[in-house]
Amino acid sequence: MSGLGLPVRLALTPGQAGDPGQVGVLLAGLAPAVVIADKGYDSRAVVELVEGSGAEAVIPTQANRAEQRDIDWEKYKDRNLAERFWSKAKQYRRVATRYEKKAANFLAFAWVAAMMVLLK
Fold first, then answer.
1. How do the residues of the chain divide into helix, strand and coil, expressed in percent and rounded to 5?
2. What is the 3-state secondary structure (H, E, C) of the chain?
3. d(CA 10, CA 1)
4. Three-state DSSP class for 57?
């Protein structure tokens, strides 16, 4: 997502794959100043990848970690932009329920939903 809550890149994964493994794909070729994510992305590999690209990692540390990182909680409040975007995109039934069997078709409908959200 951009700083305005607009999608920059979408990546489709299998249902059993975790999202943190896609960080490299999503950041490839981009030069963000800040990467904001939830606790699900809290891993050394993700934080190192983000900071290695020159961006600030605003990812809260999971409660069970011995070493807690400090983050800018004011910047973290902007994560709601991504949540609100997906809430709007899922108003399109084909995206919310994934009627499409083929990944390419589903990703195309996700892009169409994203464009419709942007046009509203």
1. 50, 5, 45
2. CCCCCCCCCCCCCCCCCCHHHHHHHHHCCCCCCEEECCHHHCCHHHHHHHHHCCCEEECCCCCCCCCCCCCCHHHHHHHHHHHHHHHHHCCCHHHHHCCCCCHHHHHHHHHHHHHHHHHC
3. 9
4. strand
* Residue of 96, 95, 58 whose CA lies nearest to 79: 58
The tokens of 64 are what? 């069970």
The pLDDT tens digits for 42-64 are 888 999 999 988 899 999 998 88
Rounded to an integer, what distance in angstroms lies between the CA atom of residue 76 and that of residue 110?
25
CB atoms closer than 10 angstroms to residue 61: 15
CA distance 38 to 107: 23
Mean per-residue pLDDT of the chain: 87
What SS3 state is found at 73? helix
Residues 116 and 89: their CA atoms lie apart, in Å, by 8
